[in-house]
Amino acid sequence: MASNGVKKEIGIIGLGKMGGNIARRLIEKGWKVSGYDPAEEVMEQLAGEGMTVAGSPLELVDALSTPRLIWVMVPAGKPVDEVLFGPTGIVTKLAGRDTIVDGGNSYYKDSIARSEKLEKLSIRFIDVGCSGGPFSILKSGACLMIGGSEEAFKEDEELFRDLSLKDGYTFFPGAGAGHFVKMIHNGIEYGMMQAIGEGFAILKKSPYLFSLTKVADMYNHGSIIESRLVGWMRSAFEEYGEDLDAISGSVGHSGEGEWTAKTAKELDVPAKIIEESFKFRVASAENPSYIGKLVSALRGQFGGHAIKK
User: Fold this and answer.
1) Of 55, 13, 18, which Cα lies nearest the Cα of 35?
2) Which of 32, 189, 275, 293 is catalytic?
3) What top-level branch of life does the organism fall under (predicted)?
4) Which of 14, 171, 252, 276 is least surrounded, with the fewest CB atoms within 10 Å of its CB?
5) Residue 58: how many other CB atoms lie within 10 Å
6) Is the pTM of this model over 0.85?
């Protein structure tokens, strides 16, 4: 129990890079955490760190006292629906005033649809966009963009306070609103990373023998473009060398950049930079480049994504 009487108990389904570190941070903050993941070695490791292991999502539901609070951290799309509504979906065991939190990068329209289905069962739904990367969650806390049930948010606000850095969470009214804000965040991120990649590629091909590491360091001491991304660029150079020989020139991508460009068209808002940066990533599968290496290196630094050749 928290000092204000709030029950600090949660179940987490999906214990990958993000989900696992969410579990670790909550355990550090005094939460009783039950978790499930199909990877047994992941559960064994977290069990050694204080998490209660469940043999299945349904067993996880049974392990929690009511009203239940369950954080779903699985890939967007069908996996979320399978966990919630599939043949062995957890909604069959949930009851009114239970709360489901979708903390993955789900498409906001999918979150609206899920919220409507759950509302008919009197199950509350919160959608959360998480930013900062899996490593920052443990170090300083995440940045959380929260939508869905305002009632559930207010009741469970201590969860978001414990997971975030100071003043690092905000509630936005409406089902899917948190995922919408995160979708746009990631679209902006695509454009910022592309600009950094293009700029450092120009520096490398210039007639001057620049140390790109020193340039990145200088940019991050009071310049207008000072940022965590520029800091991560310097870290990538230090880790892999400025030629980035070990890094793939093909850039991975998830749905958010594409969804942002699609949503911009639906709302008749020009979004050329975001759209072009998404197209660059798609094309990089067939046309790897040094710019691609730079963007890939950034993805590895903040997200732990697979980026090596």
Assistant:
1) 13
2) 189
3) Bacteria
4) 276
5) 15
6) yes
Give the residue with greater pLDDT, 308 vs 203.
203
For residue range 62-104, what is the model confidence (pLDDT) as tens digits? 999 999 999 999 999 999 999 999 998 999 999 999 999 999 9
Answer for the pair 167, 13: CB distance below 8 angstroms, yes or no: no
Residue at 194: amino acid letter: Q
Structural domains of the chain, with CATH: 9-175 (3.40.50.720), 182-303 (1.10.1040.10)
Element (H, E) at 174: none
The predicted pLDDT at position 229 comes to 96
% of the chain surpassing 70 pLDDT: 97
CA distance 133 to 7: 27
Quote the tokens at residue 118.
């759950």
Would you state the pLDDT for residue 253?
83
- Residue 252: per-residue pLDDT: 83
Catalytic residue among 9, 59, 182, 242: 182
d(CA 37, CA 228): 31
Is residue 182 among the annotated active site residues? yes
